[in-house]
Amino acid sequence: MKKHIRLLLCLALTVGMNLYFRSFPIHFPQFRKQAKVITEQNLYTLAQQQINKGFPSLSGLAKQNLINAFLADYKKKMGPEIKKQLRQEYHRLKDIYQDEHGQTYLMELDCWHWARYVENVYRLGHPGDIIIDGKQFDTLMFSPSGYALASSHFLFYLSAFLYKGFIVIKQIPLFTFLFYLPLFFSAIFITLLYLFCYQRWGNLAAIISCMFIGLSPSFVAHSSAGWFDMDILNLLFPFLTVWAYLKAYGSVSIKSRLLWICCASFWVGLLSFTWVGWWFIAIIILIYELFSFLYLTLKHYVDRENTLSLAKQHLFTLILFLFLCVLWIIFITGTQPLEILRNELKMGFQLNNPRGESIWPNTFHTVDELRVATFFELARASCGIPLFIVSLIALLYLRLRTIRDGNYRSEQREYIMLLLIWLMAFLYGCSKGSRFGMFLPLPLGIALGWVISDIYRHFRDKKATLGLCAILAVWGMANFEIINRTSRYAQGNFPLMNDAWYQVLTDIKKNTPPDAVLNSWWDFGDWFKVVCRRKVIFDGQSQQYPQAYWMARVLIANNEREAIGILRMLNNGGNKVFEILNAHLKDAFQSVFLIEKLILSEPKEAQEMLANVLPDPLSKEVFSLLYRKPPKAYFIVDPTMKGKMSSISYLGNWDFVKVFLSQHAAAMTEKQISDYFAKQGITPEAVNNAYREVLLLSQNDINAWLSRKSIFFSELEKAKEQNNTVFFNNGLVYTPKEKIIHIYSQGKYTTPKSLFLFDNNTFEEITYPQSDFNYSVLIFKKQDEYFSIILSPELAQSMFSRLYFLNGSGLKYFKPFLEEKNDEFGVKVFELDWGEK
User: Using 50, 70 and 90 to split pLDDT, how confident is the model at 24?
Assistant: First the structure.
């Protein structure tokens, strides 16, 4: 009885600690401290003003004593008023991230997208907006065609089912329920993890493992309140798969073993209904079993040990497991996961490669969470560098112990090998994206708890009091470090959505027709679909398609005709123009080069070009997609795009000539290449130098060579003219009459590559040939204030700069429509005037 009570108390404490840090986004307790600091500062300022006013001639020390006395007396008399100010300041800070009912917004962009599918299940009975020929489609994604949903729907059906059950007890909005649902999933995961570790190694190991794994910043980030996503289930189901699979090896009877293998394959089937990356756990088990089979076979033939029957057992178990996985996948999800498995595997291994087999740039290469993570970044995301290294040592120690100790139980060996293979698989996975670091703490935390528990038992059995005290002290310090690090992280966990953005989205919904299309970068597409209920060109779930390249071209374009031509093509048919041309010409590069010409051509000239390469019906269809008037559409820019310009410009500056050379230079002569590009209307001068370069570059160098990045080197600064000179805080010194610019840095004045002046809706560029720098300066004036920003030269006249900084001044097709009022340079919405070409 005492044992069960101790188990329940330890489990409750561990789960409670995990939920506590995940619940910070509910009420933002960190803002209470911040509100106290701000209130104290305000009181001190008030006291300082009163003392300076009443006793201006006193010394600083005397004034300070009076200020302290004033504060003490004021706090004593005005205690209730100060508490009221504290509450008001606290609410002011947190209300930015909450709606009018005090409900915190969903945390991340994808959360809104998945929540809409749950809403569809609740209203329509299925995640898609419509069903066509048995396929579900999202009609707001990927305008104008819509987007066929993948088969991973489990989260949506489960959430809708739980919501229907919950509102029988208490009526709450769906999105509020989904905000809290990750806490429920987290509690289930931590409970099962605790029971797994407790069953094998006891309470001490269970607590350490659950604290290490559950409170690792990378996991807390993807399972906190408001983070409505598949991430928790993507970790829970593989964990259950491994648990059931290992239970099979611990079973004595064949019937029991078959039952556990069936159970393990069931979780794989359920994972396939949850996530397109379901196959990773099958690969981990495949590697584990093949390694075991080869190892045992070699021991039989080389060391003459009787391990052949055990090797056959491993092979049989693997075959049965994979067979049952296929059956469960087909039964639960259907055949789609198996049909697209080859493509998903290929995408998984090339996830953040800037160039794949197609000619288009890979958007995933520019996504922050898919960049290659360093060892120290992974360590910091897994409860800190010291504990990460200690847990690695613990896992390696367990592996060495199995090699050294021949009597080590077979079942224990299976646990260690699977944990080690899991770790190695996701260390490789982290080379494809830092987000996969969330999977690393699982094997490390289990190994750490296992080893500390074994050491504790050793000292306990030896009745070594000093050793017991030492191990308990280490355990206490480890927990303190985990809690301290997680607390710091949780205090910085805020939703991306805020009141300013929500107001803009609400205004867009109120002031635009229901069939309007919103054009922007992919990040905020999910918000446009869910809050505005408007169609988008692409979003976070469709960023891997060519629309990303075309939208990036719009943002960096210096030619408004090019920008509106691309937008007209996208709003009329997405990437359909390319698809039609490529299907007929059988040449992707020729198709892209032709589109680039067509976009800048007059209609009559475009008709002639199309007639030369396409039959009449296709020619008319492509012409219509390029030149007919699309539905009502809007273009949106926001402050974060400035920081993303490095990624956006890398995609938009993608050089298809260089891509062609990187794919064909080794198989073609220089003359063949020149002849090919001559047919596309591209001069030899633009090709020959690139041809010679590609032959000298390594594969790694080619990735950087294929494109170039343009960036903003500074924030936007403003200043007023004084004595014919404008001094900016970023070190710029500008004399308007002479139109001369200098940058003061490191004790000396330098000049940029060029100065761009915007006045009367026109640009003037002043170049400085003697400058050795690669950046320019953009300066413009609003009323009596000058604004400046340091940037790459090609960004000065880009559509983004003209829309965001210059509010569309001088543009013909982009009309100011809405603007966030809280910030001088906030979210801006422009109505697209399709007009005449």
Answer: very high
